[in-house]
Each structure stands twice: as structure tokens, then as C-alpha cells.
Design brief:
Blueprint: H1 17-21, H2 23-27, H3 32-51, E1 57-62, E2 68-72, H4 88-94, H5 118-123, E3 125-134, E4 137-144, E5 148-158, E6 163-170, H6 182-195, E7 200-205, E8 210-214, H7 219-228, E9 238-244, E10 247-255, E11 263-268, E12 271-272, H8 278-297, H9 310-314, E13 317-324, H10 344-363, H11 365-398, H12 401-408, E14 410-411, E15 422-427, H13 429-438, E16 444-449, H14 461-465, H15 468-477, E17 494-498, H16 503-519, H17 521-525, E18 529-532, E19 537-541, E20 546-550, H18 553-562, E21 566-570, H19 579-587, E22 594-596, H20 602-613, H21 617-627
Parallel strand pairs: 1-7, 11-13, 15-16, 15-17, 17-18
Antiparallel strand pairs: 1-2, 2-6, 3-4, 3-6, 4-5, 7-8, 9-10, 10-13, 11-12, 14-16, 18-22, 19-20, 19-21
Helix pairs in contact: 6-7, 8-10, 13-19
The structure holds 3-[3-(1H-pyrrolo[2,3-b]pyridin-5-yl)phenyl]propanoic acid.
């Protein structure tokens, strides 16, 4: 807890100009993510109050003018005069890095210090109004145009409440005018509510008039439940909790049989550590050790058998790891706070998890055996896969006729420049042929695919390696496959999927994306995968003899307004274009339209792949019924 926190303990370091000059240094980027970052900065201050035990409700409102209000019922920012002759709220909102001194035992979140980040938000805002409820009084202070004081701190009334309300709008001269995303804010609110039991977080969107409340009493259990949703469980949710050397650990975890991969989400002081870190390492070490020890004592692993590997033990495991660490112990690796670096945490987490998980297995023998059965199965698959891979390697080395035939399908680029070259994966031999003629052969390579490729979500690596189409793609890309995939060996800067604009084309796209997601994930994470967007309509003007293209109906209508008396052709497939047209509309970097594929929220991506591509068809059906609106767009006939 914070001790004797008063005005004199605010440390003043620096002004706001630097923030406006180099926003990215303070908020990561100036894009949509940076725009939302401003909300997290203010929200985190309220979260700090909740963690300190003084706040149990936070409300975030997206206003009609795309400003944001974050209101909490914490203690309220202190209102006294600071030693530099300014009020404390003014200091907190105008001086960089101003925050409280604290004893090393206080648990704090991302910004670290109370009110840190508030000045950054103010510096990047058109306006920022702060209302404070404290000592039975209401105070207000206001800033404009990047943190210039517009109204001094002023007493404006009486109250029985306590708390802080911050109302701001990001500066449109610094950001493009983005819209706040209700769903993104809800996601973050849910996450925080799950991590802090009993805290109620309300999100309101005045545009859509939507409102949601998040409040959980046994947080981590509900978190795991939310992550696993309707997968088949092998174990109940296990909750492990402990404290050591002022570090608090909470883990919620569950084994399920549908998920083929692990799903570990970790937090340090309530901030998501996307890239894991020492807490995750400690957790993994402990789980592997405990399972192996258990298997040995129960004689499920014979003496001459090797230990299970970490990946065997973690397949199908969903876990949420939350550590709370005294602020002076927190260290991150790299610049973003996405990876926890504090070394001591590894052993602390390892110790607590080892003790508690072993105990849990002893107490729940039946479930323990089911978990072990799954792990043994996983190991068998892994070994079969390894054998298949070795075989495949052997084949490659022998450079058999079959192999050469496979590579023969590739029309390579003339230059060897992995930083510039593009590989087009084209649906069908005939479109492939057209693409070969139309391309810029210096840097564009073409690989035509025959029909549908195999669904990677329903096959293991051993099966995939036997598939000629998959082999062809893997050989062409050059970075290997699966765990051994190496981005440095990839022959291309862009992998572009080019299919017909119809359902079969969409199916081929999603099959390829599933394969890349599962077996060449670094390629996807590096955002090197694209979808080509062929136009949907060709508009030929008979009078002027001009041709133009439209990518959607809106586009089409606009062009028809300009050129009456036009003939419209609805493209059904790439094959209807000649080489010239294909180059101009879909392949020429100057004129084409590409969709860059990103993974986005990793957990959502994982869930979607499992639902849409996995073998539980009931689950898929449910998802489709809940999420898809079928339209007749394809059958519309446009009168001209
Ligand atoms: C400085 C000191 C204290 C609280 C806060 C700042 C504070 C900041 C924000 C920002 C949003 N909500 C907030 N709530 C509190 C400690 C106050 C005390 O010791 O009474």
C-alpha cells in the first residue's frame, strides 16, 4: 500500500514538448493503436487505485464527439499545492514522469507510478478536463491544445463521493481522426475485471448506445472458462495460488482435447505480457518437471523411456498466469513492455507451481491419468512426425525425379532478391499461365496450385509432408516448415495468394492461411502474406473506348454515373482476364490492391482457426449461425 502519500512526494522531471515532437516514443505509435493507448494510460491510473484497494468501479464512456471519459471512485487525485507553486493535479497532468515516490512493496500497473502517463495523454489531447471528488469537495482543472492550462484548479462544489474523472479528446493534428473501438475497449475492460476480482468496469458507447459491465468474483477461473469456451475438457479448471518474497502468483489452467496447441496468456501487474518472459519460463519448467516426475512415480514412463518434452506436456493446455511484483523488482526485456525480464521471478513461479501442481495431481488421480493419456498420445504423434520429416529430408537429398517435377511448376523470378521478390500462389493452371505471361519476371514468381490444398488444421505434420502441393509451396518459400521454420531463409518479401473472387477461391485462401498460420507462423507474424484483390467488374465505355475496373458495387455505381452507356462485365474468375489486364489490375505494385494478412489478437485468431477449420463441425455450425448473414449479392443482376 502507499504510505503517507502527499503533495511533496511528487517528482517533477520534464515538460511536454518532447511528447508532441515524438509521440511514438511515448505511446508506441501514432496509428489506431497509439490512439487507444491514450485510453489505457488513463485507465491504468484508475486500475492502480483499484489495486491499492481504494476503487471498485471504473466507467469508460466513448462520447459522440469521439472523446473519452474515464471515471473512477478511487481516492481522487490530491488537490493541494505542490512545492513548485503549482497544484498537484496540474503537476500530474503537465510534467513528464511525475508520479509518487512509493515504498518498494506497492503493487502498481503499467504506467508504474500514480498518474504517470496522464501528462503524456494531456500533451497529445485537444482538451483534457479533470474533475476530482475529494475531501467532500469537487474540484476541476482544464487543459487545451496539447496540455496548455486553460483553467486553474478550482473548487466548484461539495460532494460525498470520492474519485477522479478524466475527459479528453486525442489531438487531431497529431493523429488521423480514428474512432474509438468499443470492442477493443471492452476486451481490455474484461481482461482487467477478470484479473481484479470484485472490480466493476462499465463501458458505454454513445454512438451505438451499447453498454457492457464486467465484474467477476472468481476471476482466473472465469478467465480460463472464457478462453476455452466450448472445447472438450480433460480436466476441471485448476487454480494455483501462492506468495513468495513479496511476489504473488495466481494461475488458472485447464487441459482440453480439441486444442492442438498451447494457449498461455500471462500478465505482470495486470499488464498483458504478450511475449511472456520469466514468469512463463518458470511456469513451463515446473509443469514439464511435475508431469515427468508424476509419470515416473506412477510408472507411466518406463525406466528406459525418455522424458516427455515441454511441447508434449503443453499441448491442449490453456493457462492464465498472473504475477504481482513489487514495482522496484519489475524489469522488462526490450522497449515494449511485452516481455517480463525479472530473473528472480522464474524460480519463484517454478517453486510455487511445482508444489501446488504436484499436490493437485496427487489429489485428483483420475484426472491426472487422463491428462497423462493425452500427453502420451501427443508424444506418439510427435515421434511419427519426426520420422516423416527425416524421410522427407532423405527424399530431398536424393533429388528424385518427382521432386524436380514439383519444382518444375514454379516459374521463378529472374533476380535473387529475397527483400524484394514476390511469390504468387495462383488458383489453377490456366490462371497460373496467364500470370506467368503478365508478371514482371524480374521479381515476381508464379506457382500455380491445382484446386484445394489439404486442411492443415485436420492433419498433422507427417500427413502434410506427404502432400505434393504442400511440398511444392514449402520448397518454393524456402524457410522450412513447422517448428524449424526460419524466416531468414525465406526467398520472398511477399507471398501473395491470388484466387478467383468466388467461394472456391475464398476456400483456397482460407486453407492456405490455415497452413501458414499453423506451420509458417513467423511468416504470418512478419506480415509477409497477402491476398490479391482482383476487380469484380470491368466497365467498358463504348464511346470513348476506355476501360475501367471496379472492386465493389459502390465503386461500380460511381463509375456508372460518370460513364453512361457502358458495358459491365462481372468477373467470375481470374481466367477471364488476359495477361495485360491481370497485370494492371491485380499484379502491378503501382495499381493493384492487396490485403495484408495479420494475426491480430493471438487468442482470438487461435480460437477462430479451431472453430472454423478444426474437426468439431457442431461448433462450426453454431459459429456460422451466430455470425454470418447470407446475402444474395452474387445473384444480383445490375440493369444497365
Ligand atoms: C496521486 C496520488 C494519489 C492518487 C492519485 C494520484 C490518483 C491518480 C488518478 C488518475 C486517475 N484516477 C486516479 N486516482 C488517484 C494518492 C492519493 C492519496 O494518498 O490519497
Amino acid at each position: 500500500m502507499l504510505n503517507s502519500y502527499d503533495e511533496s512526494s511528487i517528482q517533477v522531471l520534464e515538460g511536454l514538448d518532447g511528447v508532441r515532437k515524438r509521440p511514438s516514443m511515448y505511446i508506441g505509435s501514432k496509428d489506431r493503436k497509439g490512439w487507444h493507448h491514450l485510453v489505457w494510460e488513463i485507465f491504468d491510473n484508475s486500475i492502480d487505485e483499484a489495486l491499492a484497494g481504494y476503487c471498485n468501479e471504473i466507467k469508460i464512456t466513448i462520447k459522440k464527439d469521439d472523446s473519452i471519459i474515464v471515471a473512477d471512485n478511487g481516492r481522487g487525485i490530491p488537490t493541494g499545492m505542490h512545492k513548485k507553486g503549482k497544484s498537484t493535479p496540474e503537476v500530474i497532468f503537465t510534467m513528464l514522469h511525475s508520479g509518487g515516490k512509493f515504498d518498494g512493496n506497492s503493487y502498481k500497473t503499467s504506467g508504474g507510478l500514480h498518474g504517470v502517463g496522464a501528462s503524456v495523454v494531456n500533451a497529445l489531447s485537444e482538451f483534457c478536463y479533470v474533475t476530482i471528488y475529494r475531501d467532500k469537495k469537487i474540484y476541476e482543472i482544464g487543459f487545451k491544445n496539447g496540455g496548455h492550462l486553460a483553467r486553474h484548479l478550482k473548487l466548484i462544489g461539495k460532494t460525498v463521493k470520492t474519485g477522479t474523472v478524466v475527459h479528453f479528446r486525442p489531438d487531431s493534428t497529431i493523429f488521423n481522426n480514428f474512432k474509438f473501438s468499443y470492442s477493443m475497449i471492452c476486451e481490455r475492460a474484461r481482461e482487467s475485471a477478470l484479473l481484479i476480482s470484485g472490480l466493476k468496469i462499465i463501458v458505454v458507447d454513445e454512438h451505438s448506445k451499447k453498454e457492457e459491465q464486467f465484474c467477476f468474483t472468481n476471476g482466473l477461473e472465469e478467465f480460463v472458462k472464457y478462453l476455452i469456451a466450448d472445447e472438450k475438457n480433460i480436466s476441471p479448471i485448476m487454480l494455483l495460488k501462492g506468495e513468495m518474497d513479496s511476489v504473488q502468483l495466481e494461475v488458472g489452467m485447464q487441459y482440453s482435447s480439441n486444442a492442438y496447441s498451447e494457449n498461455i496468456i500471462s500478465f505482470a501487474n495486470n499488464v498483458k505480457t504478450i511475449d511472456g518472459g520469466t514468469h512463463v519460463v518458470g511456469f513451463r519448467t515446473a509443469i514439464t518437471k511435475v508431469i515427468n516426475d508424476y509419470a515416473r512415480t506412477e510408472n507411466l514412463l518406463k525406466e528406459k523411456e525418455k522424458n516427455f518434452e515441454g511441447s508434449d506436456v503443453r499441448e491442449g493446455l490453456t493457462a492464465v498466469i498472473s504475477v504481482r511484483i513489487p514495482e522496484n523488482m519489475i524489469q522488462y526485456e526490450g522497449q515494449t513492455k511485452s516481455k517480463l525480464g525479472t530473473n528472480e521471478i522464474k524460480n519463484i513461479v517454478d517453486n510455487i507451481v511445482t508444489k501446488q501442481f504436484s499436490f493437485w495431481l496427487q489429489e485428483n488421480k483420475t484426472v491426472a491419468y487422463e491428462i497423462l493419456t493425452k500427453i502420451i498420445k501427443t508424444r506418439e504423434v510427435r515421434e511419427a512426425t519426426r520420422k516423416a520429416r527425416e524421410q522427407a529430408r532423405g527424399q530431398r537429398q536424393s533429388k528424385g525425379l518427382k521432386d524436380r517435377m514439383l519444382i518444375g511448376k514454379l516459374a521463378p523470378a529472374q533476380n535473387r532478391s529475397p527483400n524484394k521478390n514476390e511469390l504468387f500462389l495462383v488458383e489453377g493452371d490456366s490462371a497460373g499461365g496467364t500470370a506467368k505471361m503478365g508478371r514482371a519476371r524480374s521479381f515476381q514468381a508464379i506457382l500455380s496450385l491445382k484446386g484445394k490444398i489439404i486442411n492443415a488444421e485436420k492433419s498433422n505434420l507427417a500427413t502434410l509432408l506427404k502432400n505434393p502441393e504442400i511440398n511444392m509451396i514449402t520448397n518454393a518459400i524456402g524457410g522450412g516448415i513447422g517448428e524449424n521454420f526460419d524466416l531468414d531463409d525465406v526467398n520472398y518479401d511477399k507471398i501473395i495468394i491470388m484466387t478467383d473472387a468466388d467461394v472456391d477461391g475464398a476456400h483456397i485462401q482460407i486453407l492456405l492461411l490455415t497452413f501458414f498460420y499453423r506451420y509458417m507462423k513467423p511468416l504470418m507474424a512478419a506480415q509477409k502474406i497477402y491476398l490479391a484483390l482482383p476487380p469484380l467488374y470491368k466497365i467498358s465505355n463504348k464511346k470513348s473506348n476506355e476501360t475501367s475496373y471496379a472492386w465493389n458495387q459502390k465503386d461500380l455505381y460511381k463509375q456508372l454515373e460518370k460513364h453512361t452507356k457502358s458495358e459491365i462485365q462481372r468477373y467470375k474468375g481470374l481466367g477471364e482476364m488476359n495477361a495485360d489486364q491481370l497485370w494492371t489490375t491485380t499484379m502491378n505494385p503501382e495499381t493493384r490492391q492487396l490485403v495484408q494478412v495479420t494475426i491480430g489478437d493471438r487468442h482470438k485468431a487461435e480460437k477462430k482457426i479451431i472453430t472454423l477449420m478444426g474437426d468439431d463441425s457442431d461448433k462450426r455450425k453454431k459459429w456460422i449461425e451466430a455470425n454470418i448473414n447470407f446475402t444474395l449479392e452474387d445473384n444480383f443482376v445490375i440493369a444497365s
